[in-house]
Design brief:
alpha+beta; 3-stranded antiparallel sheet; 3 strands
């Protein structure tokens, strides 16, 4: 079962403030994992997060567990 709905190329482009052509190039170049349904591509949000983390200039900071408990 899906945890979250799949994102369209248009939705991903909007989220990362890039063009749809750029997102399609990432998919074509096997940089961004996507699932093809007919002529359309869908991207899982976790795959988008992984792509962004892989292309970040620094690693994400670990979550402070004590801070999480205070929330």
């Amino acid at each position: 079962m899906l945890r979250t709905p799949l994102l369209t190329v248009q939705e991903v482009a909007h989220l990362v403030q890039m063009t749809e052509a750029t997102v399609r190039a990432w998919i074509r170049d096997n940089q961004l994992r996507a699932i093809k349904f007919g002529r359309d591509w869908r991207i899982e949000s976790i795959d988008l997060e992984n792509f962004l983390n892989d292309h970040a200039n620094i690693a994400p900071t670990p979550v402070d567990r004590d801070a999480e408990k205070d929330r």
